[in-house]
Structure formats: C-alpha cells, structure tokens
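Lay summary. Proteins are chains of building blocks that fold into shapes, and those shapes determine what they do. In this project we predict the shape from the chain. Here is one chain we studied, written as its sequence of building blocks.
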Amino acid sequence: HPALLALVLLSCSAVNATAVLMIAPAPLLWLGDAALRGRVTWVRATSTATRVGILALAVSAWWIAMLRTQGRLGADVLGFSESLEATSFTTLATETLRGTGYWLFYIRDETAFATSASRALMENPAVLALTYALPLAGLLGVALVRWSGRRWAATTLLAGMVLAVGVHPIDDPSPLMSGIAENSRSGLALALRSSARATPLVVLALSLGLAALLRHVERLFAHECAV
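And here is the predicted shape, written in a compact code that computers can read:
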C-alpha cells in the first residue's frame, strides 16, 4: 500500500533529511527479500518501490523546498554547527548495538549529563548489563534460529550497523566510509554526519531476532512438556 507508507512518512518526516535517508534501506531490503523468496515478483517489487518513491517525494516536497531555499539563500548552518569529528566520536559498534551512540546523549558538564536518561545507561551496572544482554539475545535469534524474516533482519542489521557506525574512528574509517572521512567538511559529509540516526534499523532487526529466539525457546519448552 504505497499511499499508506507515504502518509506514514509524511507524519514523521521533517527538514532533517538524514533521518529519512538512514532508514530507507529497511523497506527496500524487505522488497528485495520478498522477491527472492517468491512472495512477490521482481516486477511487482520494482513497481512498488517506484510508486513509494514517487509518493514519498510528493509528501516531502514541502521540506525539500525549504532546504533548497535555505541552502541557496540562508546561512551556512551545516558549516557552523557540530562537526563530523564530534558526531562520529561516540558511534562505536558496541554502543550502536544497544541502541545508543548519538553524540548528544554523552554530553555532560561539571554537574550532570545533558540528557537525564544518560546517567543510568552509562553508569548503572544492572542497566548496562541488560542493554547488552538484550542485543546479544537478538543476535543469537538472527544467527541461530530459522524463521521467515531471518535474512531480511540480518541484512537490515548489517546495513544499520554500517550506516550508524559511519566513519568511526574518523582517523581510521572503513574503506566504505573513507571518502566521507577524508572530506569531512564537504556538503555530503556534513549533511549525513548524524549517522546514528540509522540505529533504528539495528534496534528493529535485533528486536525481531529476540522475538524469534523467545518463540524458539517457547516451542522447545512446549515440546519437552508434551514428551
């Protein structure tokens, strides 16, 4: 239902294009996986992606026009706000796996963290253990349990990790991201610098993996009880 997807995009998108671009791989990978599994034909997958893309551009026209106007006539906001070095400093793979990594989350002054929820997630041993145990269980569900959406979850997880970690560490980035790291003041690098906005892809994939693992354990338990 392309129109419904476009309305969802309209309800959650705004002038921050990075937030939209970073989650775009999820539906595209889903269509590709559906075609590979024979649930839909490649023609239908392609036509659906095309219709979604056209409608997505239509409902995004209002903020695209604003960004173009600001870029042509306004101040160079990107050049005077946070740098790529600052935003990539905290996007470690381990932090991304537990759903964190966004640089503002770690800012603190002499008295406290700027974000109140940061303290527990950074200092409480029980919370730290839980926020690593849940992603580990999700990884096990993706890696070991057979379920229909496993391939899509795995590819979405991979895409989310690559995008969210981004150029970290900026002095030794991955080959895929080296071009952006070497041109950290370019328009593209500054526009896509908040790479942690791809973290929802990771969280979604791990959540599905965790659900698959729990379902598998439930079935094993039911089988043992039946025996």
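What the prediction tells us: The mean pLDDT is 86.
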